[in-house]
Amino acid sequence: MTSPSAASASESVLTTPVPVLERRPPWRDTFASLRVPNYRLYAGGQIVATTALGMQRVAQDWLVLQLSGSVTAVGVTVAMQFAPMLIFGLLGGVIADRYPKRVLLMITQSTAALLAAILALLILTDTVQVWHIWALAFIGGFVTVVDNPARQVFVNEIVGPRLLPNAISLNSSTFQLGALIGPAVGGIAISAVGSGWAFVINAGACLVVVTALSLMNTKELLQSPVAARGKGQLAEGLRYAKKKPSILLTIIMLGAVAMFAYTMPVLLAAYANDVYKVGSAGYGFFNALVAVGALAGAVLSTRRLGVSLRLVIAGAAVLGVVQASAALSPDIVVFAVLMAGSGAASLLFLTSANSLVQMSTNLGIRGRVMALYILVQLGGQALGGPVMGWIVERFGPAWGLAVSGLVPLVTAAVIGAIMLRRSHLHLAISHRGWMPSLAFLPRD
Questions:
Q1: Domains of the chain (ranges plus CATH)?
Q2: Contacts of 130 (CB under 8 A, 6+ apart)
Q3: What gap in Å lies between CA 82 and CA 65, rounded to an integer?
Q4: Model's pTM, two decimal places?
Q5: 378-403 mean pLDDT
Q6: Cα 103 vs. chain centroid, distance in angstroms?
Q7: Do residues 89 and 152 touch, judged by C-beta distance below 8 A?
Q8: C-alpha distances in angstroms, 333 versus 282, 330, 338, 386, 403?
Q9: pLDDT digits (tens, 9 = 90+) for 156-170
Q10: What's the whole-number mean pLDDT along residues 291-298?
């Protein structure tokens, strides 16, 4: 049951900044969450796991391509991974709210280790077939259904609400480190010892996470309230998100960004192959620039004083401007710089959106709301890939990149206009000499 004060707060369109910090933290507090012993265990396990997962994904795609000789078969593999989340993602949030998150994560990571070990055995015994990979990827998708929302909520149990935004930013940094190191190590491992050992390493990494979880001091965890069994719990999460503008508008904005701006692999492949003609090496370089920018953005996000709906919308607008501007790049140097900027803007938006949704949600229902968040994020990327691919093939890479920026920018402008209208404000533009001045003023 939502309290009257919470209900009245949910009616406000302009979400006030989350009171996490009263002043900008010094640089020595960039990694403040790591002062929590349990979080050090968790973060250490995540660094190992995300790096190994990056290795496995490269090995898996390469293996499917070798076995089938078909790029379409690689696409089917990706679809198998996404399908359970798209169909059952919201149910994963219900499970995350009902059961202890640490126990759930130990189960999901143990299952992931088993799946990786099975595939490693099939590869090393030279009996693997494409359908084996598809089946195991599909089963692994169900692991993700529970693992992702449980992981999102569990971070709050480790560090508490005061350090939650910092922990979310560090988690993003960890992910980007995995995105940088994992594929590179995976490519070396495939050449040196074969694909099978990449899966062996990932199985071991999952067990490292299980070990880290088991070593945590459970007395220092801030236990989330466990939702009792009952009918309509899935719909309750949807209704909760719908009633709180800080959540609803953020998720709408996330959908636009995920579907159009987070389709960089499609766009970068087209630019590397068709525009700048730099081949696979250039494609890898462009992706590395995006990842480096994202890592910088994740670290910078730890210095925010708080998060608000205004900040989320502004972040999406900046991301849109950067990517639309990249479509006008006169040469590869400008394009490369803007790609790094796109990575930074992307992570600043993502950490702001994630922090705002988590901090705006009651703990008892947070798993279901975060499952909706993840569903929109992953579903948007799954739908956006084919859409952006069609735009690139039909109109060219520059139009595709322009659309990837303009759609989030327009969406941010529309949501911003709605916020202003409901707040009884209007945007006033005045000129003092040659410089325009912007101000938000009450309506007459």
A1: 31-223 (1.20.1250.20), 237-444 (1.20.1250.20)
A2: 64, 67, 68, 73
A3: 19
A4: 0.74
A5: 84
A6: 23
A7: no
A8: 12, 8, 9, 28, 21
A9: 889 888 788 788 778
A10: 82
